[in-house]
Specification:
Structural class: mainly alpha
Radius of gyration: 21 Å
Order of helices and strands: HHHHHHHHHHHHHHHHH
Shape: globular
Low-confidence stretches: none
Mean pLDDT: 85
Distance between the termini: 20 Å
Largest sheet: none
Number of strands: 0
Helix content: over 70%
Length: 446
């Protein structure tokens, strides 16, 4: 396992940072090609097309992708714990089971999206003037779901053993491919929204090919033999025990966001376009926050597997402080430069004005989500994912659903205030659950 990195000895922050930054740069490039899509669409195709591929459409796709990503986190935790235990045989069995599940789920989700998307988007109130474009985009993107699943799972496996550099390299290549094809298909060949979707799935296929090739060429426990693809029932059971609650959490999270975007749809195309532009800025925080979460999950998984609980506690606390400081800095930059950032996606004055208002009400509260990300990542690394799911479901999803449904005539700002309110309440519950030590009753080794 010479190419992989153990983070169970020595300094805590230094190896965490060395692991964190490739993840961060990787998510940056992933977000970059999503952002390039928005830039190309907003500037060459107009605000209607921008609204068609963002807002409800993007959230609906994330409903399925997020479920599988959450489910796949179970395999990530298992690999990191097995690595801490030096149990390479079970790592190999986990790799083959996880890749097989990725293919199966990718096919099933593609079929599900094709058969439900038009009905779902109509129910969620996507305006008729952008419904056809939204359908065209979502159906083409769904074709690339198998590639997306394989890439996400393969990269999660590599990161679980401390290799965060190769996923970064693969994503850089994919990002370049996507940018070139975006410009070629939209600007040169005038393919519209279809061109953006095709560029996305081709880029995803390239990144999936690279990560699978990396596993095939690996000469250690991560080696993937395509002839040995199968499902190990014991691995699948443990993986689902850890990952299924996270997958359900992601679905519930996305459903609550769908309700919110449905409410936003009622304010018209300008509001949808502004929310889409804000979403690209908002994603900057979430990609950094997510990188903190992935890093702490892997760190805790390896150290928990090695039986080093004191190191787990110290790592959690130190990582929380660093994440909080960085969150404050990001919020300040986004608030002060809101018009400039929004103007990158669309120059319409009303779209920018609405987007600026959203940022002013949401960005100052990003800091309140840090305890949720770090503590849930720490708990997940130890295999405790059920209770964090319950906390999130009640504290975030429950509050959002009640908020939106109880105020059908809510103002635009009232709709967005549900975000900070749900973050604050959920963070407080996570802090009590973790620092009281209650979580220790739910721990179970893989």
């Amino acid at each position: 396992m010479s190419s992989k990195s153990s983070i169970t000895e020595g300094s805590i922050i230094k190896p965490l940072l060395f692991f964190f930054f490739p993840i961060l740069f990787g998510t940056f490039f992933q977000q970059l090609y999503n952002t390039v899509d928005a830039l190309v669409i907003g500037n060459f195709l107009g605000k209607e097309a921008l609204a068609a591929v963002g807002g409800t459409t993007g959230v609906y796709l994330n409903l399925f992708v997020g479920f599988f990503t959450g489910l796949g986190s179970g395999a990530t935790v298992l690999v990191s714990q097995f690595f801490g235990m030096n149990n390479y045989n079970r790592i190999s069995r986990t790799v083959h089971t996880s890749i097989t599940i990725s293919i199966v789920f990718g096919i099933l989700l593609t079929f599900l999206i094709f058969t439900t998307s038009k009905t779902a988007l109509t129910i969620l109130g996507v305006p008729l003037e952008i419904l056809d474009m939204s359908m065209e985009y979502i159906e083409i993107c769904s074709i690339g779901l198998v590639s997306m699943m394989l890439y996400n799972m393969g990269c999660s496996i590599l990161r679980a053993v401390g290799d965060s550099k190769h996923p970064l390299y693969f994503l850089i290549v994919s990002c370049i491919v996507n940018i070139v094809l975006d410009i070629l298909f939209v600007y040169k060949f005038s393919m519209g929204v279809k061109g953006v979707a095709l560029a996305t799935i081709i880029a995803q296929s390239v990144s999936a090919f690279l990560v699978i090739l990396s596993l095939i060429k690996s000469d250690d426990a991560l080696h993937l033999n395509l002839k040995e693809l199968s499902i190990d029932k014991s691995i699948l059971k443990d993986s689902f025990r850890i990952g299924l609650p996270a997958g359900i959490q992601s679905v519930l999270y996305t459903i609550s966001n769908l309700l919110i975007t449905s409410a936003i749809n009622s304010f018209g195309v300008n509001a949808i376009a502004a929310n889409t532009a804000f979403g690209k800025i908002d994603a900057i925080f979430w990609m950094i926050d997510g990188a903190f979460g992935v890093a702490i999950t892997t760190f805790v998984g390896q150290n928990y597997g090695a039986g080093k609980m004191e190191r787990v506690s110290k790592g959690n606390n130190q990582w929380m402080i660093i994440a909080t400081v960085i969150s404050i800095c990001i919020s300040l930059v986004c608030i002060f430069f809101a018009p400039n950032l929004l103007g990158l996606f669309n120059s319409d004055p009303e779209v920018i004005a609405i987007g600026k208002t959203i940022i002013q009400y949401v960005a100052p509260f990003w800091i309140t989500f840090i305890p949720i990300e770090i503590l849930s990542g720490t708990l997940r690394g130890m295999g405790d994912s059920f209770i964090p799911t319950v906390i999130t479901a009640i504290g975030i999803v429950g509050i959002r659903v009640i908020w939106i449904l109880s105020m059908p005539d809510a103002s635009f700002i009232t709709v967005f205030m549900v975000y900070p309110i749900s973050w604050i309440i959920t963070s407080l519950v996570f802090i009590i659950y973790y620092y009281s030590g209650i979580y220790k009753k739910h721990l179970k080794r893989a």
